[in-house]
Amino acid sequence: MDGTLWMYVALALTTAPPLVPNAALVASAGALAQAGELSLPLVLFVVATAATAGDAAVYGLGRLGGGRARSWLARDARRRAALAWAGDRMRVHGLPFVIAVRFVPSGRLLGGLTAALVGYPARRYLLGAAIAQCLWAGYSVALGYWGGGALGGVWAAMAVGWAVSLLAAALAHLVARRLSRSPRPAPAGARRGAAGGVPDGAPPIP
Fold this sequence. Notes:
Layout: H1 5-15, H2 23-34, H3 40-64, H4 66-74, H5 77-93, H6 95-100, H7 107-117, H8 122-150, H9 154-180, H10 188-195
């Protein structure tokens, strides 16, 4: 346990904050668990818990610094459009969108800030974030675990982890674009955004 403690710490530190590349490390942890050098349940727990804690921190910062966050978003048209798009979808689709937005590019940051700024209930947001992170941790670690056994080691698991992470992000982006074209009536904020020339299918926060 002492010799592998650094790996659990590294997993927590790289999965808690958003926008930190971690697919290769998570896949490696799965491969090491398959080899018996790490505990599979503990790897899953650390990855899912740290990521959910990071989402909670983003939400909390959004609530505490709402004015500054809005000012930061207002300085860039793409950020304003992304906030309007995500806020409208969160109001219309609720918890399913909170879960799905985690899998789009910059989705953790966008989802947490949007939920905070539009007043989405903290408990429901954290529930959605926890579900999303458990799903992400499950398939990410499982890929490394399977790759380590079936493909012959950590490097193969890392390659599979990167490939599937990119595929999942692409599919989630397509789903998000599909939701953005939903025929459901848009809230007033969406109508104001459309009147101002902001595209409905807004890009993620750069």
